[in-house]
Design a protein that fits this description.
Elements: H1 3-22, H2 24-35, H3 49-55, H4 63-80, H5 88-106, H6 133-147, H7 154-191, E1 198-203, E2 210-216, E3 220-227, E4 236-240, H8 253-261, E5 266-271, E6 274-284, E7 294-302, E8 307-311, H9 316-330
Antiparallel strand pairs: 1-2, 2-3, 3-4, 5-6, 6-7, 7-8
Helix pairs in contact: 1-2, 1-5, 1-6, 1-7, 2-5, 4-5, 6-7
Length: 333
């Protein structure tokens, strides 16, 4: 999830653990704990694109990281606040839960998380977008209300518990909504007699009303969108796999790793004599059926032994183009 959401969750968890003893300090250090796992993005400044992508939501988002570092962070804060009522164990518990709930929340997104690192299995329920106002805004509002209450106030605990309960209930609801959307996609595919081997669905940006499905067929991938307000049959657009364009590059180490990262959901496109590896799991840059630019695309430059991989940059204008189309499509076709 986005940084603000993780800060809010971490602060609420910190409040639940130590708010009664240390007041808003619990929210502060809970927010810090909820931010720490995402510091893995710093790796992009020191390693190549493929390695940084592999490391993202890896070790720092694992149970092992929480177990190893919670006592260390807890000890440092305990030394800093020796006069507070909280013990080293109290602070360690706060950091453990702050660090641990971060990857749990991330597991509901499309990218998922390697919660069981060093095992490579990535846990991804794909039921919520990385930014979802319906999850974050009520949670943040209740957290702010709690912060302005006395630390021993019953209202403080009530507001914080409500934030945790409502946000958790929403996560459960997203799984139910995904199940309903999945049923709609499969029913439509059967009605259109589309033969497929796999289907992968996820919510579109900023909401859980409009859903997108990747469909794996023999020759092409198909992508379709479904809103709970739709009144017409789902349209599926075909995108050639073009895996053959890789040629010898398919044996390149970095390409094999990109294929593993994408879990096999990828197409190859060619632009100005340059190959691009497109990760289908995060969709297109627009809801326009004629759109061919994917949200995560990697430029392949070089030969098998000396291959350079560079992520295609995203621009603010891309989001500005997407939002009006997204808003219109949410309300059905």
């Amino acid at each position: 999830m986005d940084s603000l959401t993780q800060i809010v969750l971490g602060a609420a968890v910190g409040e639940a653990v130590l708010g009664k003893k240390v007041g808003n300090k619990a929210m502060l250090y809970g927010a810090i704990a909820g931010t720490i796992p995402d510091l893995d993005v710093i790796a992009r400044y020191f390693v190549d694109t493929v390695t940084a992508t592999e490391w993202h939501r890896g070790f720092s988002h694992s149970i092992l990281f929480s177990v190893l570092f919670a006592p260390l962070f807890g000890y440092l804060v305990w030394k800093l606040h020796r006069k507070a009522e909280a013990t080293w164990r109290d602070w360690s518990l706060l950091f453990f839960l702050g660090l641990f709930t971060h990857p749990i929340l991330d597991a509901f997104t499309t990218w998922g998380t390697q919660l069981f690192w060093p095992f490579t299995t990535r846990l991804a329920f794909q039921s919520i977008f990385v930014v979802d106002p319906l999850y974050t805004i009520p949670f943040l509002f209740l957290l702010i209300l709690a912060a302005f209450q006395k630390r021993t106030s019953a209202k403080r605990r009530l507001y914080n518990c409500l934030g945790l309960v409502i946000s958790s209930a929403y996560l459960i609801l997203t799984l139910i909504l995904k199940g309903v959307a999945y049923q709609s996609f499969t029913t439509s595919l059967d009605a259109q007699k589309i033969v497929y081997t796999d289907i992968d669905i996820r919510p579109s940006p900023l909401n859980t009303i409009l859903w997108t499905a990747n469909i794996d067929t023999e020759d092409v991938y198909m992508i379709g969108n479904y809103s709970f307000f739709d009144s017409q049959e789902i349209d599926f657009e075909a995108y050639p796999k073009n895996h053959q364009l890789l040629g010898d590059l398919k044996e390149a180490d970095k390409v094999k790793r990109l294929i593993a990262i994408s879990e096999g959901w990828y197409t190859i496109s060619e632009n100005k004599d340059m190959l691009h590896f497109n990760d289908l799991r995060f969709g297109l840059m627009s809801l326009d059926p004629k759109e061919t630019q994917f949200a995560f695309s990697y430029q392949l430059d070089g030969t098998n032994s000396q291959l350079m991989v560079k992520e295609t940059p995203k621009f603010r204008g891309d989001a500005e183009k997407l939002l009006p189309l997204l808003w219109e499509r949410i309300w059905g076709n």
